[in-house]
Specification:
CATH architecture of the largest domain: 2-Layer Sandwich
Radius of gyration: 24 Å
GO molecular function, one term: DNA binding
Number of strands: 7
Organism: Glutamicibacter soli
Number of domains: 2
Keywords: DNA-binding, Transcription, Transcription regulation
Structural class: alpha+beta
InterPro entries: GAF-like_dom_sf, Sig_transdc_resp-reg_C-effctor, Tscrpt_reg_LuxR_C, WH-like_DNA-bd_sf
Protein name: Helix-turn-helix transcriptional regulator
CATH superfamily of the largest domain: GAF domain
Order of helices and strands: HEEEEHEHEEHHHHHHH
CATH topology of the largest domain: Beta-Lactamase
Amino acid sequence: MTTDSLPQVALLERTLNTLAARTGFPVAFGGFAESGGTVLTSFAGTRTGALRGLVIQPGQGLGGLALARRELTATGAYQQSPDIIHSYDREIGVEGIITLLAIPVVVDNQVRALIYAGLRDRSQLTDETLAAAAGEARRLAWELSVHEETERRLAVLSASEAHATHASDLALSQEDLTVLYTELRDIARLIEDPELAQRLSTAGSMLRAGQPREVAGSRGAGPLSPRELDVLTHLALGKRNALIGAHLDLAESTVKSYIASAMRKLEAANRFDLVLRARSRGLIP
């Protein structure tokens, strides 16, 4: 991963702003891990450019210690701490930071980034503050993993589209297509990047594009709402209402309501008929 990935940089910058807000620390900064070290590239609340471009090496400074330990590391008095190698005292001092915490962001057992939060006075770090900081690191790790998995799946779909002009030409069964479509909708529902969400929507349309459809539109075949489609894609996989609700964070009664509404719109006699009618109209693969 390189820092040239604008969506990932945006995720990091948003995390730093949230980290500062949740911890009450006015300064937050970080960067992505690269072969030569972790380069500090993103900042919130800094007063100078002293930290910009600083390369953090494992074992050096508080961040380097956090990298070596692969865990949150903190100090209430950075300059006087006997536990760290003071390689970056000048840069930290110029920024006036005294209390500092550093958290490595680990994805698939690899350190992908390093984030910091700092105060310009001495402070006792509470368990609540440390837990909030650790939570932001975990959230960023999850968002990075989702982004990378999404990019991988979109690349697979693009490659498949280049070699096949019809969805039925792909070496995927009906169930495979439905599973993939459902997962793309689930990811799109969870991410906050609008550009990536649009790409996922386009990918879903690619999956539906080659499905057989009725030549003439039927009465009651109005478009389903996004949430009705979410429920319907899981229903097409044979899931029961309770399992659909657990997956989509919906009450079972709400799932039943969405299914009933979709059945009215598509004039379906039952759940099985609903799935068949949705497929015949190209609403799901």
